[in-house]
Amino acid sequence: MNHSPDAGREMTCLTAVDAAERIRSGSLKSEDLVSDCLQRIEATDCDLGAWVHLNAEDALNQAREMDRLRWFGRPVGSLHGVPIGIKDIIDTGGIPTERGTKAYAGRVPRRDAFIIDRLRDAGAVILGKTVTTEMAFMCAADTRNPHDRTRTPGGSSSGSAAAVAAAQVPLAIGTQTNGSVIRPAAFCGVFGFKPSRGAVSRTGVLRTSESLDQVGVFARSLEDVAALADAIAGRDSTDAGTHSRPRPRYLDGCRSEAPIEPTIAWMQEFQRDRLADDARQGMEDVAALLGPHVERIPLPPGFMRLMETHRVVQDYEIGRNLKRLAADKGALLSRQLRATIDRGQAIGRKEYRRALEGKAAAERYFEKFFYDYDAILAPSALGEAPPFESGTGDPCCCTAWTLCGLPTLSLPILTGAGGLPVGVQLIGGPDEDDRLLRTANWILRRLVAESGSA
């Protein structure tokens, strides 16, 4: 293979939507795209560490089959022949899924997760498994930030965000229980999108918190995250948390025009005292460019208490779901995770029920909130990616939105004082993901227009 760092760079930098269109038209072969992605990984992953298991030969075979189907005029999918990385807590039949821990070393599932079936139906090529933090929690893995190897890529979807940012693959799947899609997307400078809770099945995905676990996606364009969300979303009768009703059409929403110019709420004091100076100024600049379309509003009463509500729900459910693992293989788990499991088991059912009631009350509040606003503007993280040794970063900018199951999107539109990406987060109404993506597209075009005329 070609070991040049720029090997296949032009092809691997294609958007997924563009690549799929070229593959369907016959102007690009899936085998060539997958081969170039593999070359790119070989050339760059030695010091990045985004992949835990690369399914190279099988991926090339999948790509050849996608090319064969197109050649013979068979049906082709929305992501036909496009390679994708899968977070290593999502089951892939016959491919190791070790969940970032020695406790599951050598684990090879027999069946694909529901969303892997959906991806195969769309024609996507499963390239391999991307690195996760231990059990998708807080203990950092070895993955580094593509923009600065001394910085964290964020967690827990560390490898998925880093692989997309490094142009190793155009798309990747992650998960979020607190800030595990939005924060890595911000630190790595890519688009990260977590659909509304209930839109995407979690069957075959590691379950740590049934009330909070959600699937999300990474890409280098807004259209790509929408197209990937379209591919994986859908009702799953084996996951009671998925909706039994029509879902938004993500890509159609992204491409549609707003019937009227949107109104965006900015809770200006949200985490303001904790934001890095450059992140705070960046938010001010974005709001200024959007001008009268941004309405500055106070934090809702009791809003910051949602952080504690989230902690109680997550800890209690982790304590219950990982109790047996801790008993059987506790010596293979980090001290941090064992402490969380113990803390969760110490929470009583009465306190847990109160937290669930608080969660439900917050969900009801935001159902009405978006009658007046198209989106909420917020930081994706507190600033640039922190040093690798300090951990994966604080998820506090995501906690409340994840608790409420709202659709969230990180836009890679700011650069910090150190030259690293700083994300801007948009939050939408429940099940109004298409409206959120439409608003995001309007904002991106508006920012380009306003910054160009400034």
Please identify the structural class as seen in this structure.
Answer: alpha/beta
Radius of gyration, rounded? 21 Å
Arithmetic mean of pLDDT = 96
Number of strands: 11
* Proportion of strand residues: 5-15%
Strands side by side in the biggest sheet: 1-3-2-4-6-5-10-11-9-7-8
Number of helices: 16
Give the overall shape.
globular
End-to-end Cα distance, whole Å, is 47 Å
Order of secondary-structure elements: HHHEHEHEHEHEEHHEHEHHHHEHEEH
In this structure, how is the largest beta sheet organized?
11 strands, mixed
Account of the protein in words:
- The relative contact order is 0.13.
- The chain starts with 8 loop residues before the first helix and ends with a helix.
- An eleven-stranded mixed beta sheet has the order 1-3-2-4-6-5-10-11-9-7-8, sandwiched between helices.
- The chain has helices at residues 9-12, 16-25, 30-44, 56-71, 114-121, 158-165, 182-188, 222-232, 250-255, 277-290, 306-321, 323-329, 335-345, 349-369, 399-403, 433-453, and strands spanning 51-54, 83-87, 125-130, 171-176, 191-194, 214-219, 264-267, 294-297, 375-379, 408-415, 421-427.
- It has 16 helices and eleven strands.
- With 454 residues, the chain is of the alpha/beta class.
Can you summarize this structure?
With 454 residues, this protein is of the alpha/beta class. It has helices at 9-12, 16-25, 30-44, 56-71, 114-121, 158-165, 182-188, 222-232, 250-255, 277-290, 306-321, 323-329, 335-345, 349-369, 399-403, 433-453; strands at 51-54, 83-87, 125-130, 171-176, 191-194, 214-219, 264-267, 294-297, 375-379, 408-415, 421-427. Helix content is 40%, strand content 13%.
